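User: Please write out a complete single-protein record containing the residue sequence and its fold in token form, without commentary.

AI:
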Amino acid sequence: VQLVESGGGLVQAGGSQRLSCVTSGRAVENNTMAWFRQAPGKGREFLAGMRRSSSFYAESVRDRFAISRDSARNTVFLQMNDLKPEDTAVYFCALKKGVDWFVYRDAPAYDYWGQGTQVTVSS
């Protein structure tokens, strides 16, 4: 199983960015997919997750971020709007095998991870 993120970079505060996570080895629609981020000196923070057709978000990003998927391309996206300097972090895509009744928000629950993509928001 391989997850490859892309779409990170430098963006001004208030701007938007869309991250992509191309997955191989397992179908995104049959597993739980999630996005996390990690800022310097901090732990890995859950942002959004998707199981079947349901999406779940951290309160801190609920109104600004949106997770989606393209099953034909086996790709998961994270649309980020109204970005703030505190959103600066490395963003990771994660896969948990199978579909549970809910989306886990703890990083150790996930089986596979991408390498991460840096997002930097300038003020």
About this structure: DSSP finds no helices and eleven strands in the chain. The radius of gyration is 13 Å.
